[in-house]
Amino acid sequence: MNKADINRPGENIIAALGFQEAMATVRRRLAEWVQSSDPEMRATLEWQFLSRSKYFRPLTIFSCWRSIDPGPIREPILNSAVVVEFFHNVSLVIDDIVDRSDERRGRPTLHKQFGELHALMASGYIVADGYLRLRDDVQAMSLFSELLKRLAVAECMQWRLRRHPLGVEDWRRIAGEDTGSMFEVCACLGDRSERLRRFGGLLGLLYHGCDDVGDVRGAAALGGGGEADLRDGILTLPAALAIRDPSIGVLFCKADPDSSDLRAIADAFAAQLPNAEKYLDEVAEEARTEARLFSINPAPLIALVEQTRRLSRR
């Protein structure tokens, strides 16, 4: 694996949060794992783990740890940060197949490059090795099991509710089970208690909403699927705000919108960006409040909120 490729993305965010050494360890372990994998799987794993990740999920684990303990990051925390990248990448592979996405972060998706068989089998291979790495950490194993179950529910719920005239609270519920569940689990893995679970959920909601807004702005940095979401009638935050207009709601709910319909929907979403940004400011403040209430040292958590909040403006 080319070290320059695996180390390139997210450096400013990692440096801003002060976790360069810990993230270097995570990256090194990921590279070593890929190189030790079965030769039949190695090319697919190299392709997937070369993606331009910002590593927000490991950084959430580290920030939650630092908010309760100023000492060195313990081995179970480091190992959890590696495994969360395993499970996160599995979710990306499945999302890309479901969304029929040809590209992610400017390069072909795994199934596009290697075919669906290889992508699905790689997902199973990653999950199996993830649980193997957790064999001495029952608490983490339980949390990752919770995560996989919630991600499965979230994906099915999101597709069942597409093209429905739902509102912001519905978006919040779906996003909370999708991205929110990942960050909730990261928070629990970091502090090894339930005290920061709600903080993690709010952080995930903020990340998801910034992704939604970034897609509408045409930002590719988060790797989301703005055009696919528009085509498939996925309830994003701008969508939830825009379809309060009945005329846009009718277009959004159409089973087979034409190009003029999609243009009108896209324009309506763009018009709601100021309201979406205002809502995300409120979510960010909720997360800061949780950090202050339930951590010994809220500074790392507040810094993480600030870095996340900036993503919609990139």
How are the SSEs placed, and which strands pair?
Elements: H1 3-7, H2 11-17, H3 20-36, H4 39-49, H5 56-66, H6 75-98, E1 103-104, E2 107-108, H7 110-114, H8 116-133, H9 138-160, H10 168-177, H11 179-191, H12 197-216, H13 226-232, H14 237-242, H15 246-252, H16 259-271, H17 273-294, H18 299-309
Antiparallel strand pairs: 1-2
Helix pairs in contact: 3-4, 3-6, 5-6, 5-11, 5-18, 6-8, 6-9, 6-11, 9-11, 11-12, 12-17, 17-18
Distance between the termini: 28 Å
Radius of gyration: 19 Å
Q: Count helical runs.
A: 18
Structural class: mainly alpha
Average the pLDDT over all residues and give the rounded result: 92
What series of H and E elements makes up the topology?
HHHHHHEEHHHHHHHHHHHH
User: Biggest sheet: strands, sense, closure?
Assistant: 2 strands, antiparallel
Main features:
mainly alpha; 314 residues; disordered N terminus; single chain; 18 helices; 2 strands; two-stranded antiparallel sheet
Describe this structure in words.
There is one protein chain. The chain has 314 residues and is an all-alpha fold. It has a single domain, classed as Farnesyl Diphosphate Synthase (Orthogonal Bundle), CATH 1.10.600. Helix content is 73%, strand content 1%. The protein has 18 helices and two strands. The chain has a two-stranded antiparallel sheet. Strand 1 and strand 2 form a beta hairpin. It starts with a helix and ends in a 5-residue tail after the last helix. The N terminus is likely disordered.
Summarize the structure.
The chain is mainly alpha-helical. The protein contains 18 helices and 2 strands.
